[in-house]
Write a structure and sequence with these properties.
0% strand; 6 helices; globular
């Protein structure tokens, strides 16, 4: 049942993004940025943590989950380091994901053969 909940929640997040792209003139880059900011805002008002507990990876893997991770990291960093935690908390909470993205992008760039237009 956990897989079904993750699939439904993650799918709904993607459907909302696709509808926004189809119905507005927002570029995908602005939508992705909006998703990260939305994850921070939903975490701020206390809505996103229960959603992550309910849907697991369906809510924590999309970009809304990245915003949630940033928020949680900053909150923890402020508790541990005070004002300096604002700057270090989000980076330390998301460092593993960022490092994985850089590594996989490097591998993809070495494997793929781009075609010039």
């Amino acid at each position: 049942m956990d897989y079904v909940k993750a699939f439904i929640v993650g799918g709904l997040i993607c459907v909302v993004g696709q509808i926004v792209i189809d119905k507005t003139k927002l570029t995908p880059a602005r939508l992705l940025t909006g998703y990260v900011v939305g994850g921070v805002l939903l975490s701020l008002v206390g809505v996103y943590k229960p959603l992550v507990k309910f849907a697991g990876a369906g809510a924590s893997v999309p970009l809304l989950g990245f915003g949630h991770a940033l928020f949680e990291g900053v909150k923890k960093g402020i508790g541990e380091n005070g004002f300096l935690g604002i700057f270090t908390g989000g980076l330390s909470a998301t460092a593993g994901g960022i490092a994985a993205v850089v590594l996989f992008a490097l591998i993809a760039s070495l494997v793929a053969k781009p075609k010039m237009k």
